[in-house]
Write a structure and sequence with these properties.
With 494 residues, the chain is of the alpha+beta class. The chain has 14 helices and 24 strands. The strands form five sheets. It has a six-stranded mixed beta sheet with strand order 16-17-18-19-21-20, with helices on one face. Helix 8 packs parallel to helix 9 and helix 11 packs across helix 12. The longest helix is centred in the middle third of the chain and has 24 residues. The N and C termini lie far apart (64 Å).
Length: 494
């Protein structure tokens, strides 16, 4: 059974999706990192990129957003008229003001992805401006009603509009449809006025994505259970369930324990932030996320097996394939993904492992494309990226190692200090005061200070050290001066 656990009591909102007792999806919404997806902005084109058929748009964010030519209403209009020639410069100019909507948040060093085809949605209808399109939910139970609503939407929409009829519209009246369409059109016109009157790029409509995402989990064909710890959130979802005629069971929980702990998924959520994942058979996975791609290493670990080596490796890889698909969804890892499975000699085993990844990934809401194995035995796949990964949302780069996971060795820091001291060898002062951690000073002076005399002779100065411990191998040249002067200064600093 599918369960959704919603934690809304604290400022950081989150929800987890549980299937067969395992956490398969974790969405976290930190207040300082609220998703911009769905927000509408007054924007300004600051740079046109003909080679990429795109433009950079200043929409008031930290970075300029990326807008592709195909997401411009002017291009869509030319396309309908059969006059599209492919050059973005025909459809937008530098300095032009336009209304844009975020479709993908900033990730890493990439700015947000934008569209000028504005989309506004309600429970039963999605309204899009700038594109000619009609869509009807495939979940309709009556095929004739599906045809009816397609014809109705086509008859009422204007040339520059796109409409998507949602499942909950199936048994509603045409009058309800027309009223809803009029409301969404009015909302779009109001946004247009705000954008036209905006003096500078900035937000004109904020989209609340948290409850919408929670409600989206209820669209599953197979009903399940949802537990929520906030009464207002519970009432909002309850209203949505009644409107949709959903069979999901809702529970408002008021226990003293954190709702994630109450349902036994807090520990699973914490493990989703770790690099290593243990498999049930004793094997393990190592996740390395980078800006360019994610690498996953499969290890046999404690699984030595009882049969032939090839069979043991195959079983470990099959177990890893299923867990990797779950972890990609749980950690929200997107983009290019490379999986280094344990090397298998038999080609059929590779095919079975790739198939297992594909089958397990079929439950993912994001599109996962399994490309296949390279000559080096690396499985390539991609997962659609729409928002930052769990790691990007919850962790910051280490200020010591700048996110690399490594720091300079004591020897590297010591030799850097030595080179810097040589640059000052022509100064007239008698001594130099250096503050460093003990590892750096020991690496510089050598065991039992064996290098001190040679080094002091080479730079023509006495070396005075004060020790400042810390996790980082570091040093700081504080002052040059006479021995007496520096010794007095060091004494006062203690």
């Amino acid at each position: 059974m599918k369960k959704v656990i919603v934690n809304m009591l604290s400022r950081e909102k989150r929800y987890g999706v549980v299937e067969d007792g395992k956490l398969v999806k974790l969405e976290i919404f930190p207040p300082h990192q609220a998703s911009l997806v769905g927000n509408v902005y007054a924007g300004k084109a600051v740079k046109i990129l003909p080679g990429m058929e795109a433009a950079f748009i200043d929409f008031g964010g930290e970075r300029n957003g990326f807008l592709h030519r195909d997401d411009l209403p002017s291009y869509q209009a030319a396309k309908r008229a059969g006059e599209a020639d492919g050059s973005i410069s025909r459809y937008i100019t530098q300095g032009e003001r336009l209304m844009v909507q975020v479709t993908r948040d900033e990730t890493g060093l990439k700015g947000a992805k934008l569209t000028a085809l504005i989309e506004l949605s309600a429970d039963s209808l999605v309204y899009m401006h700038g594109i000619d399109y009609v869509g009807v939910s495939k979940k309709f139970t009556d095929h004739q009603k599906q045809l009816h609503w397609r014809e109705t939407a086509s008859a009422w929409k204007e040339e520059h509009e796109g409409l998507i009829i949602r499942t909950s519209m199936e048994n509603q009246s045409e009058e309800a449809f027309r009223n809803l369409l009029g409301s969404l059109r009015g909302k779009f016109q109001e946004l247009t006025k705000r954008a036209d009157s905006a003096k500078s790029p900035g937000l004109i409509h904020r989209h609340d994505t948290f409850l919408e995402n929670v409600a989206g989990e209820l669209s599953s064909v197979v009903p399940g259970e949802m537990a929520i710890d906030d009464f207002e959130g519970y009432k909002a979802i309850e209203s949505w369930v009644k409107t949709q005629g959903s069979q999901w069971k809702l529970f408002y929980e008021t226990g003293t324990k954190n709702i994630f702990s109450q349902h036994g998924i807090e520990a699973q959520a914490e493990k989703a932030l770790k690099k290593m994942v243990w498999l049930d058979n004793g094997g393990s996975l190592i996740f390395e996320e980078t800006e360019a791609f994610t690498v996953i290493d499969v290890n046999s670990g404690k699984n030595t097996g009882k049969g032939e080596k090839e069979q043991t490796i195959f079983e470990t890889n099959m177990s890893a394939a299923k867990e990797i698909a779950r972890q990609l969804r749980l950690r929200n890892i997107g983009g290019i993904i490379l999986i280094d499975f344990i090397n298998m000699k038999e080609h059929k085993n590779r095919a079975l492992v790739a198939g297992a990844v594909k089958e397990a990934a079929s439950r993912d809401e994001r599109r996962v494309q399994v490309i296949g194995f390279t000559e080096l035995g690396i499985l390539q796949l991609t997962r659609k990226r729409t928002s930052p990964s769990l790691i990007e949302k919850t962790q910051s780069p280490c200020p010591v190692c700048a996110g690399t996971g490594r720091i300079d060795s004591a020897e590297t820091a010591a030799f850097r200090l030595e080179r810097e001291l040589f640059e000052h060898r022509k100064r007239d002062e008698e001594a130099v005061w250096i503050e460093a951690n003990s590892a750096v000073s020991e690496a510089l002076l050598g065991e039992r200070e064996a290098h001190r005399d040679v080094l002091e002779g080479a730079i023509g100065k006495k070396l005075l050290f004060s020790i400042a411990e810390g996790g980082q191998n570091h040093y700081h040249i504080k002052r040059f001066g006479s021995m007496k002067e520096l010794q007095e200064a060091m004494h006062k600093s203690y």
